[in-house]
Write a structure and sequence with these properties.
alpha/beta; six-stranded parallel β-sheet; three-stranded parallel β-sheet; about 15% strand; Polysacc_deacetylase_ArnD
Length: about 280
């Protein structure tokens, strides 16, 4: 039936039925993303301080008047010709990496979109650092589901609960309604997932045209190589908030962006909101 999975008004508490369904999803999805070890706190802080000391100011985002209508459906690159780069970063497995990425944005002016899995403690750990940047629009939050399951393998009610639970978490924690943007974990999607998501107001599955390939631990030089390949005009590039190597190459990422005269943007910098 139309609207079967409709979200309650943002901020509404989960009903007992929703809560039980969310617990079921957590059980189904209990094994999934591997966690990397925490640590190297001093190295991450040093890397952020180095970026702040050496990186010149980046180009600003385009003016609000330049925003265009969101086409809807799957989005994998920014439309038209231009000088924009949408750097989108997923998950949040490692709290140190979330903090370092956010500090990197604060220090350099890089604009980012975070696709959040609310199950990870990082999103509560760094509210004080992150929320002011969300409020002023430099960092945008979007829905990556609560616990990162392959939604094509879940019952439809569990798909709805994954999106709804994460939606409510982001509203209660950061005060933002992140619709219409979501990202299907692993890029796994089908017509049934699209229908459930659309009924909840999540009408734009945001995929990517380039990747840093850092969903697993890879050498720092490989991350830079991927940035050199994919930091191109109108690209949507995916990275991850999971492993420490990327925190040591922020200066090199900024150098590529600056040398190519790219403007980093959030999705809201490019598209008009329809929700």
């Amino acid at each position: 039936m139309p609207g079967r999975y409709r979200l309650p008004y943002a901020g509404t508490e989960l009903t007992r039925r929703h809560f039980i369904a969310a617990l079921s999803v957590a059980t189904l999805s209990g094994v999934g993303l591997s966690r990397c070890s925490f640590g190297a706190q001093r190295e991450v802080v040093a890397a952020s301080e180095q970026v702040a000391a050496t990186s010149p100011e980046l180009l600003p985002p385009p003016p609000r008047a330049a925003r265009i209508q969101l086409p809807g459906g799957v989005l994998s690159s920014l439309p038209g010709a231009g000088d924009l780069l949408a750097l989108t970063v997923d998950d949040g497995v490692n709290s140190d990496v979330v903090r370092a990425y956010t500090q990197f944005a604060k220090d350099t002016g890089v604009r980012l979109t975070y696709f959040v899995n609310g199950i990870y403690p990082a999103w509560m750990d760094h509210v004080d650092l992150l929320r002011p940047m969300v409020d002023d629009g430099q960092i945008q939050l979007a829905n990556h589901t609560w616990s990162h399951p392959n939604m094509t393998r879940l019952p439809l009610v569990a798909v709805a609960e994954e999106l709804r639970h994460n939606h409510d978490f982001l509203w209660k924690t950061y005060g933002v309604d992140v619709r219409p943007y979501f990202r299907s974990p692993y890029g796994a999607r089908n017509a049934h997932v699209d229908k459930v998501a659309g009924d909840l107001g999540y009408t734009t599955d945001t995929l990517w045209s380039g990747t840093l390939e850092d969903q697993n631990v890879i050498p720092e030089a490989e991350i830079v190589k991927m940035a050199q390949a994919y930091f191109t005009p109108q690209a949507i590039v995916i990275g991850h908030l999971n492993h420490l190597p990327v925190t040591n190459v922020y200066g090199q990422l900024v150098d590529i962006i600056r040398a190519r005269r790219l403007r980093t943007v959030t999705l809201d910098d490019v598209f008009l909101r329809s929700v």
